[in-house]
Amino acid sequence: MQAPGSTLPALLGRIAGAASRAGSQVRLLAVSKGQPTGAIRALASAGQRAFGENYLQEALAKMDALAALALEWHFIGRLQSNKCRDVAARFAWVQSVDRPALVPLLAGARPAGMKPLNVLLQVNVEREAGKGGCAPDAVAQLAAAVAAEPRLRLRGLMAIPAPADLEQRRAAFAAVRRVFEELRERYDVDTLSMGMSEDFELAISEGATLVRIGTALFGPRT
Ligand SMILES: *Cc1c(COP(=O)(O)O)cnc(C)c1O
Which of 24, 99, 126, 214 has the fewest C-beta atoms lying within 10 Å of its C-beta? Predict the structure, then answer.
């Protein structure tokens, strides 16, 4: 595996190609869970600013070590209520809000001196049991709860479709896109986070504006 900084230009080229075919603009979130701070540093010096982490303690340690770089951190892991305080105090974005009980906890813990916390609602269009994400018909209520909080800023949706065959995955991405279009009729939202190392080009062709990529950028996780 090459150094992460060296895989970035080729990956950005593939993202830009897919985005231009789709007629959209797409950002890269570098998913750094299980990767050492040195690898994050290498990517940051190659120009990458946005990083995603799943596990709170691991993320906080990296944020402390890399504070001087002023990176944009996204929390993308399962969100329990006891994590809301640190997520709201330390991250720029949280992508995994999937139930109303989390909303006042995040809003109440967002420090007054910081910009509002950017929020994506995680939606589970396949209604897989045991997985994070709300059902599509729960999105409207959750969106209203977030939009009512001045310390939170509703930005859109996040989804992690099941690893199925390509046609099923395409259908899942398209279903998320439809929920996003409905949300956009009511709110000023701009971010559809879907697509990972194995399927980001497919996700972009179905409307993703933010792709979350770990392995294809850093190599295998430790
Ligand atoms: C780990 C993870 C990713 C990145 O997965 P890769 O297959 O390594 O690109 C993206 N999104 C979420 C929510 C993840 O947990």
Answer: 24
The stretch 154-168 carries a mean pLDDT of 92
Q: Could you tell me where the beta strands, DSSP code E, fall in 84-190?
A: 93-97, 117-122, 152-158
Q: How far is the CA of 129 from the centre of ligand 1 (A)?
A: 19
The answer to whether 193 touches 166, Cβ cutoff 8 Å, is: no
The atom number, within ligand 1, closest to the CA of 198 reads: 7
Q: Note the Cα 33 to chain centre separation in Å.
A: 13
Phi, psi of 140, rounded to the nearest 5 degrees: -60, -45
| Span from the CA of 23 to the centroid of ligand 1 (angstroms) | 24
Q: Under 8 Å CB-to-CB from 77, ≥6 apart: which residues?
A: 33, 53, 54, 55, 56, 96
Q: What is the mean pLDDT of residues 191-208?
A: 97
pLDDT digits (tens, 9 = 90+) for 64-74: 999 999 999 99
Could you tell which of 120, 212, 218 is best to mutate to test the pocket of ligand 1, judged by most ligand atoms within 8 Å of the CB? 212
* pLDDT above 90 (res 164): no
